[in-house]
From TrEMBL:
It comes from the Bacteria. InterPro entries: Homeodomain-like_sf, HTH-type_Tx_Regulator, HTH_TetR, TetR. Keywords: DNA-binding. The keyword DNA-binding applies. This is TetR/AcrR family transcriptional regulator. The keyword DNA-binding applies. It comes from Conchiformibius kuhniae. GO terms for molecular function: DNA binding. Residues 30-49 bind DNA. Residues 7-67 form the HTH tetR-type domain.
Length: 217
């Protein structure tokens, strides 16, 4: 019974931290804020987590697993409309964990454990799945690209996606990330595909791009 209570509290701390980090920013949320929000003592929180960075590592693990689950199960697109929906799924997960992307480099520098997990996630897990996505697009005749191009494009797409929320909020002059940033991010990520699109897919992209690029908050 004691272990069950501990497990529930552990999960509640992670859930509450995500909510508070997203709403108020990770920098503005202390472990005392989290404990107060949950109605528990700081000592109870420290029984489960030695510091805030340990909570963030757990939230990154949740986020990365959600992304991998999505990339492994989502239907791969064979046209631009499907590519929009595919990227929308990625951005929805990032929105759920958006605090991670408001100042990602600061978090990575602060925690060597988080940095290691982040680099492994990017290099060995996400990049191969994005190459698989581009290979599917190539096989369907949607894009024309060589092997080196696929490797480079996969990294560039992930790089843009990872830093998009931070960039967009600064360009809009806002401290917080907004829902509209997701649609602008989808558009900007997919623009990387346009030079490789073939035939009818170019016109389809341009038609859809007009709608995506005119999103306002």
């Amino acid at each position: 019974m004691k272990e069950q209570r501990r497990t529930n509290t552990y999960i509640r701390i992670i859930d509450a931290s995500l909510q508070l980090f997203n709403e108020h920013g990770e920098r503005n949320t202390s472990t005392n804020h989290i404990a107060t929000h949950l109605g528990i003592s700081p000592g109870n929180l420290y029984y489960h987590f030695a510091n805030k960075d340990e909570i963030i590592v757990q939230l990154f693990q949740r986020y990365s697993q959600a992304v991998l689950d999505y990339l492994n199960t989502a239907s791969l697109p064979v046209n631009v409309a499907q590519a929009v929906e595919y990227m929308k799924g990625v951005y929805e997960i990032m929105w759920e964990y958006r605090f991670l992307f408001s100042d990602v480099n600061t978090l990575l520098v602060r925690s060597s454990e988080l940095l290691g997990q982040h680099n492994d996630f990017t290099r060995t897990r996400v990049s191969p799945l994005l190459v698989k996505l581009l290979t599917q697009m190539q096989d369907s005749g949607m894009i024309a690209i060589d092997e080196r191009g696929k490797q480079d494009l996969a990294i560039n797409m992930w790089l843009l996606t990872k830093y998009w929320f931070d960039f967009d909020s600064s360009m809009q002059g806002r401290a917080k990330i907004t829902h509209a940033a997701k649609k602008r991010g989808i558009y900007q990520t997919l623009t990387l595909l346009r030079p490789y699109l073939q035939g009818k897919h170019v016109a389809e992209f341009d038609e859809i791009a007009v709608k995506l690029s005119r999103i306002a908050d």
